[in-house]
Amino acid sequence: MMIRTENKGDIESVHQLLLRAFGGQQEIILMERLRKDPEIDPELSIVAEDDGIVVGHIMFSPATLDDGGTMHKVAALGPLAVLPEYQKRGVGRQLIAEGKKRCGAHGYPLVFLFGHKDYYPRFGFVQARAHGFEIRQFTVPDEVFMVAELQRGALESMQGEFRFHSSFEGLG
Ligand SMILES: CC(C)(COP(=O)(O)OP(=O)(O)OC[C@H]1O[C@@H](n2cnc3c(N)ncnc32)[C@H](O)[C@@H]1OP(=O)(O)O)[C@@H](O)C(=O)NCCC(=O)NCCS
User: Fold this and answer.
1) Could you tell me if 28 and 40 are in contact, meaning their C-beta atoms sit under 8 angstroms apart?
2) pLDDT tens digits for range 113-167
3) φ and ψ at 96, to 5 degrees?
């Protein structure tokens, strides 16, 4: 298994993977929008390759945290997908670990996501609202809005309103 940066030759495989993992077009549309934005860091679109097959993909996009005085740059995780026949073998775990490492190295203090409440806590994610973060962009239950720190102390020292990249809006 190789974990590496997505390249142009992977795009079609990543789209097929998203279709198979999620069963719809929303995540493909999201990836197409994100890739068009020059602000997106290509190193934060990461694939897992096994025997020449793209079996997993994870994306981290730039997002904001507004604490009322300062707009901080934070990261957002998503989408994350693993081919059904490769699930529950640690592929998602490796993609999250590599992505968190890269986001930390790029200076992001925190990474936010919407996700499965039983999955992400395994990887250091905690409920965001319980730590003083809010979101107005979308309406979501407390348990799916999660955050993990990438720089020690960031969960304690930061707070405010989180916003995903505008590519996440209007996806239905
Ligand atoms: C969610 C998903 C990315 C997990 O990927 P994966 O490669 O199967 O995950 P891993 O094998 O790394 O799982 C790590 C651990 O989490 C567990 N796990 C996997 N999926 C889980 C889930 N949905 N809920 C709770 N635990 C889960 C695994 O059993 C494993 O446990 P273990 O360490 O005790 O063995 C994958 O199932 C997927 O692509 N699902 C469809 C798309 C999707 O829902 N994406 C996430 C959107 S938030």
Assistant:
1) no
2) 999 999 999 999 999 999 999 999 999 999 999 999 999 999 999 999 999 999 9
3) -65, -45
171 C-alpha vs ligand 1 centroid, how far in Å?
23
- Secondary-structure breakdown of the chain: helix, strand, coil percentages, each rounded to the nearest 5: 35, 30, 30
34 confidence band (pLDDT: 50, 70, 90): very high
pLDDT tens for 69-94 read 999 999 999 999 999 999 999 999 99
Ligand 1 site-directed mutation target among 18, 31, 116, 140, most atoms within 8 Å of CB: 116
Q: How far is 106 from 100, CA to CA, in rounded Å?
A: 10
CB count in 10 Å sphere of residue 12: 10
Distance 68 CA to ligand 1 centre (A): 35
What residues have CB less than 8 Å from 17, skipping those under 6 apart? 54, 55, 56, 57, 81, 82, 83
- What domains can be seen in the chain, in order of their start residue? 2-168 (3.40.630.30)
Q: Give dist(CA 66, CA 54) in Å, integer.
A: 36
From the CB of 72, is ligand 1 less than 6 Å away?
no
